[in-house]
Design goal:
Length: 299
């Protein structure tokens, strides 16, 4: 995975344009490691034109939504453990100059499949990890403790659980990470969004939500950059299914709602049906964007 560029609050700085003295500066970075909804793109079991095209041309494929944080001294944290965990962990470690390709900590946002299945790679069948810190809410912690195979990871000390309650913060290698509840289907656990604050800028990460209530909308509007749920482009997207059964904010509605946001609003967690994944995607206003693997945000 190549690094596409860095958002500095006013413009993208692409790797090929970055001066040597800029590259030498130690800074807190957020890396986009995946952008697709839980089923990936191409989507599991789907034969639509978009998914068939992505199978024929792997350059169109997208990994499941995930971000990684590289701290001030080079420590690495991943937000969520997706089915693409191995590839994403290696990409983040490479960006940090880390060998072997391992991360120092994980945060899990909730228990839908695209956000925690990759934990299995930390078990003895794969990495046989040594007490990797995993931060999650109390409901997520109980879910892992009381369901196999995840409880095996805890019993064998391959992961070490830490409760990250909504309203609480976590300091990680120079970055301040604040967690807050995000309304989302809670069959098994609650869901959290995150605000990540560096020395100069704040990034909001909210990949899964049913709606954006006023308190969350305010976070999006005030952030320097916000990576938000863009699962569906509009309400006509699933003609053979009741779209409110899998409720997400529509991109078209979010564009209207956040036109006056102070920073950049970027859509992530895109379903394979989303028009933003098509060869001729609909245009977005300049203050909006679509996340790409390899995007880097300097904080």
């Amino acid at each position: 995975m190549e690094l596409a560029g860095a958002w500095t609050g006013g413009a993208w700085i692409h790797a090929i344009d970055r001066p040597a003295e800029y590259a030498a500066v130690m800074s807190i970075q957020v890396h986009v490691l995946g952008t697709a909804q839980d089923g990936g793109f191409p989507h599991a079991g789907c034969g639509c034109d978009a998914c068939s095209g992505a199978r024929a041309d792997p350059s169109q494929a997208r990994l499941v939504s995930c971000i990684g944080l590289i701290g001030a001294t080079g420590k690495c944290l991943m937000v969520d453990a997706t089915p693409d965990f191995s590839t994403q962990q290696a990409a983040l470690a490479k960006a940090a100059g880390r060998r072997p390709p391992q991360v120092d900590a994980l945060i899990l946002t909730h228990a839908h499949i695209g956000h925690y299945l990759g934990l299995a790679m930390l078990g003895r069948e794969a990495m046989s990890a040594d007490a990797v810190p995993v931060y999650c809410t109390l409901s997520m912690r109980r879910f892992l403790e009381h369901n196999r195979p995840w409880s095996h990871l805890i019993e064998r000390a391959e992961i070490e659980l830490h409760t990250l309650s909504p309203g609480e913060g976590l300091e990680f290698d120079g970055a301040q990470i604040d967690a807050y509840l995000t309304p989302h289907r809670s069959e098994d656990t609650d869901t959290i969004g995150l605000s990540i604050r560096g020395s100069e800028r704040v990034l909001v990460y909210m990949p899964d939500a049913d709606v954006f209530p006023p308190a969350l909308a305010e976070r999006i509007e005030e952030a320097d950059v916000a990576l938000i749920d863009g699962t569906f482009h509009d309400r006509e997207e699933l003609p053979h299914r009741e779209i409110l059964e899998v409720r997400h904010p529509f991109v078209t509605e979010s564009v209207e709602r956040f036109r006056d946001a102070s920073g950049k609003v970027i859509f992530i967690h895109l379903n394979h049906t989303n028009a933003l994944l098509s060869e001729n995607p609909p245009a977005l206003p300049d203050s909006f964007g679509v996340a790409r693997e390899g995007d880097v945000f300097e904080l």
